[in-house]
Amino acid sequence: xxxxxxxxVAYMIREVEEGHIRPGHKLPSIRAVAHMFSCSPNTVxxxxxxxxxxxxxxxxxxxxxxxxxxxxxxxxxxxxxxxDFASTTPRGDFLPFQQIEHCLxxxxxxxxxxxxxxxxxxxxxxxxxxxxKHFHAQQIFAQPGQIVVVTGAQQAFSILTRMPxxxxxxxxxxxxxTYFGFLAAADVAGCPVIGIQRxxxxxxxxxxxxxxxxxxxxxxxxxxxFLNPLGTSYSLEQKKRIVELASKYGVYIVEDxxxxxxxxxxxxxxLYALDDGKQVIYIKSFSKTILPGIRMGAAILPERLVDxxxxxxxxxxxxxxxxxxxxxxxxxxxxxxxxxxxxxxxxYREKMRYAIEVCARVFGSGIQYTCPSSGVFITLQLPQYVxxxxxxxxxxxxGISVTNVDQHLLPENQRNDRIRLCIIGxxxxxxxxxxIVIEEEIRRxxxxxx
Length: 450
Fold this sequence. Notes:
The chain folds into three domains: 4-75, Orthogonal Bundle (Arc Repressor Mutant, subunit A), CATH 1.10.10.10; 98-334, Aspartate Aminotransferase, domain 2, CATH 3.40.640; 339-449, Aspartate Aminotransferase, domain 1 (Alpha-Beta Complex), CATH 3.90.1150.
């Protein structure tokens, strides 16, 4: 349950976004808010100070707190305002600003000497040890020497698409659709890319084996759970078979497990946990669960690839930012990360369950959609002749942003027939209101082409 401090922060944000408090206007007095929430004045002061640090409000000596100009819609959307199903950024009031700020201050004190030089390009030892403990709890038994701290998962993708791998394969095999950021990294690196179709039932394992046996594949990039954009996950049987085929043909797998913290099935192990042949490279981002601006991620590699990966990383940035590393170390060590992960897992599970209920009620059987158990993505398969780009433009005119799934596809696989809906920053009223408008626009486009 949210603390009184969090409740006050959330309440004030709603008041601002609903227009009850306008830029330059004074916020309710500390005494009035304390009475409203049955808490001490100190709790209200603490909440107001949190909003002040986020530049939402400012203090005037002997007068009170006032709203900053330009901050009216900085956190979430209102039901009557724009509805953003395209953004993958979590709600501002749902991110652990205060805790991370505390950890950053502690990191400055703890690592003040290191601020005047460069640290280990592999990552500071204390953080890698905390990561080892964190991954062990997820059935990933790696040693600190196999873990490399990266400046976000995107840096890992950039390095892996550039560095050579054992064997003669030069191409990367990717699911279709896949994460567009990886496609961008491969394109810039000049790395050849081959696609294999994936739907909400998984992939054709026979086709996968044919690719692995061709000798062309450098590695297979996969997002086994909560795939962006489908939102769906592989079954345990499929994951076991993928790992078996990789071991059989000596093909490496790059596993992007960016939303591992949202998994509620304790038996849903990552590919890395099933890998006896040490063919899996595991990538974990912390952007979606903590703060995107922290830019922290981790790569776990087979021992024979660690030094090569570090050499490429060292050439890119020498070392990841020490303050971000120190803050993440302290955030994990204190238990804050574990508690926050539990909170967001419960939050997004309930949000997705609600979204799927609304899909059934609004879209019915006439519009196909994926049904993830958790995560933050749903994909709509549009009816024949309804083009995603046209729908996207019409929705934009109504203040609703969605993503064309073609953004996640290689050019030869683009069909302009699906849209992705991300619910990460939306609340229940916005989800239902947005889905209703989307359904109405789809039906209007259907009638136009008949």
